Amino acid sequence: MCTAATYRTKDFYFGRxxxxxxxxxxxxTVTPRNFSxxxxxxxxxxxxxxxIGMAHVTEGYPLYYDAVNExxxxxxxxxxxxxxxxxxxxxxxxxxxxxxxxxxxxxQCATVQEAKALLKRxxxxxxxxxxxxxxxxxxxxxxxxxxxxxxxxxxxGIKVYSNPVGVLTNxxxxxxxxxxxxxxxxxxxxxxxxxxxxxxxxxxxxxxMGALGLPGDLSSQxxxxxxxxxxxxxxSGDSEAESVSQFFHILGAVDQQRGCCEVGDGQYEVxxxxxxxxxxxxxxxxxxxxxxxxxxxxxxxxxxxxxQLVRYPLIQGEQIKMxx
Length: 324
Ligand SMILES: C[C@H](CCC(=O)NCCS(=O)(=O)O)[C@H]1CC[C@H]2[C@@H]3CC[C@@H]4C[C@H](O)CC[C@]4(C)[C@H]3C[C@H](O)[C@]12C
Known about the structure:
alpha+beta, 5 helices, binds Taurodeoxycholate, Penicillin V Acylase, Chain A, choloylglycine hydrolase activity, EC 3.5.1.24, single chain, eight-stranded antiparallel sheet, choloylglycine hydrolase
């Protein structure tokens, strides 16, 4: 499972958790403006917006899981198993392979509005990257500081949903996820009052009882509700440190600990990494399952007019600061 979220204070933040039982070998990867993208059906894109994000780089190609471009547009791919459907090529459409979707959008679009215009012509095709890396079944959140959308390629075509929460998890399809929020509208950060019966002396014997009923499990629907509640009610200062700290706390609400989600063969899904990108400043912050210290890579410290990928392997292992 994964969860993606947006957050706005003085700046705009975009990030996600990536939950899985093994890592593909992820690196914070900067793609400079003149790295040449060769699309399977759409020709060469020789210059484009620069982007920073988490990718598995193979054969010199950045297979992004999530990224933000220099204009502050962010995009993340999350599992959508059983519902994602990719198509055959079609004439008169932009035939983009699933693994090319992030570069295709972030390379050319500065805003969600611009992305929506491109999405009218898009056809996500089922060309795999390679034999070793078959198609991943994904759906995506795209966001800038103004708005967020969810994009799903399903049996009957491309669906573009406005995403007023700025949160995405996995199944079911996004419209169903949103509908389920209706079930939780009584949940509140405030202390509850006794509406049960005025004939009974019920009272709030603990803080936090306004959120009784908020689902605590790791299913994607429950993580959606929980992340939505925490994000929509989040309060923080607007400095960089306070915003980044709060962002990691929001996604901390859906953190997966090893042992709680068995996926067979003694394997467990865990939160492999959590990211938070300041989309205005191009700073990509991350923590990993084994390393809670926040590490960051700054897009603007790199030569953005270059042609070569810049890759930072994740710093692993707890960084513990001894105080005596
Ligand atoms: C495993 C991850 C989703 C985690 C998740 O949601 N786990 C919940 C399981 S569940 O919800 O219970 O089902 C997803 C998210 C992004 C994916 C990469 C996208 C680029 C590239 C696309 C190529 O086509 C295949 C290889 C490739 C490197 C992909 C590998 C893998 O697929 C990645 C990491």
